[in-house]
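INPUT
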Amino acid sequence: MASVALSEAEKVYIVHGVQPLKITVLKEDLRVDGRGCEDYRCVDVETDVVSNTSGSARVKLGHTDILVGVKAEMGTPKLEKPNEGYLEFFVDCSANATPEFEGRGGDDLGTEIANTLYRIFNNKSSVDLKSLCISPREHCWILYVDVLLLECGGNLFDAISIAVKAALFNTRIPRVRVLEDEEGSKDIELSDDPYDCIRLSVENVPCIVTLCKIGYRHVVDATLQEEACSLASLLVSVTSKGVVTCMRKVGKGSLDPESIFEMMETGKRVGKVLHTSLQNILHKEESLGTKRQKVGFLG
Amino acid sequence: MPGDHRRIRGPEESQPPQLYAADEEEAPAARDPTRLRPVYARAGLLSQAKGSAYLEAGGTKVLCAVSGPRQAEGGERGGGPAGAGGEAPAALRGRLLCDFRRAPFAGRRRRAPPGGGEERELALALQEALEPAVRLGRYPRAQLEVSALLLEDGGSALAAALTAAALALADAGVEMYDLVVGCGLSRAPGPAPTWLLDPTRLEEERAAAGLTVALMPVLNQVAGLLGSGEGGPTESWAEAVRLGLEGCQRLYPVLQQCLVRAARRRDAAAPL
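OUTPUT
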């Protein structure tokens, strides 16, 4: 992750803001930028930013900038699951994000994020994979989700999961039909209408909430400075119904069992709110249709 | 094993015959959800490694070796920022490099040695779980290499690897705050599922969700946590974590005895 130079005094300032000095005093729910412990920074989401993809989204969360492109391609289903399509994730940490990612430097972080994404989607209910099947054992849709990290400002996992959900919402897969000849050879026909496509249901796509432990309290959506003060974090992947699909401890430190239970509850609470706001924004953007003002990369 | 160009590999599309066989495996037998399989642990068995450990739990067999401390490569990082909590600056702290490998014959299907993403992920999980326990500040500019080799996968492989790695580190004489004990859990699919402690390979394959917990028993701190699947609401996951922590505490006395025996053996073998 990008490193930031923090002095001891700055660290103490951040930690004391988050946790109260005296336990009898009212809790000081105050972080350096004035947010409470469970508040997110302002999130900008825009979909359909890249024209060559089946779906794309760009998310700006504070200084973190993520671009996700989804391409749907036809391929053969996996042997163990012949009736389903699947998703492939690839994460690229571009050298623009921080100088440490130059050359192969960002590969480790990229594989870590990609593995986490595989884990959170590794269950039956997140994405309806059966709808991606064209003909069993022979053809299916493979969704290549490519994540590009443009700028790193802390809290990468959350921003990436929001961007992936928005991109999957925006994905339009062309409708195909399988025609069988008399000899039994199959032919795939793409419909002529470019707007005739199937959309994925993203109701159950989870979002990641990272809770960083600072002192003995935990905060949501940590900036780079706050991440430098925290020894351990818990990554929880929550769906809109409050179902947890993945849990992972990140960082060099250890966590108390009681604080893990508290963090899970906070993660579920914050995750539900995040999902409702994201759904509202995505539906609103969709309803604007062609009247929508495209901001793109200049805003 | 990596980059092995001389060995003749099987054809690209080779598959095991079980895929075409009728599905005749019975469902795993009902059992007490809190039972732990009997564990055999032995430390100090490899002559070439600084510390080593072998752990067997049911059908899972893991061998772990530790080497180091030796000079850290890529030491040109310069004076990094001071770590959180006032420890030595990042450049002066020691590093723990973990490697997790599966033998090609470990699972039901043969997997060629560069195992791809899964081995990297488990190696990272090993590192994140062992770092809280090792006093890396006492090994400035050095690196410790931990390599775990899974000989047979009989369920809860990551948990067994974690425990074996901690035993190997202790056997190597690396300064640690506490041992790390790992425990695996899985949740069967179905209407009223319960979490099963220490699942076998069959139970893990049919599971809807799996979880591995790593605990430092004396300090009672969770060193590592990795879980995924359709676990259900947070209460269900919380119950699983509690069950896992309890399992780890139950396993601790066996590991203590193993280390004591290894120390006695080393004592007896040392020339007077």
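end of record. The radius of gyration of chain A is 21 Å.
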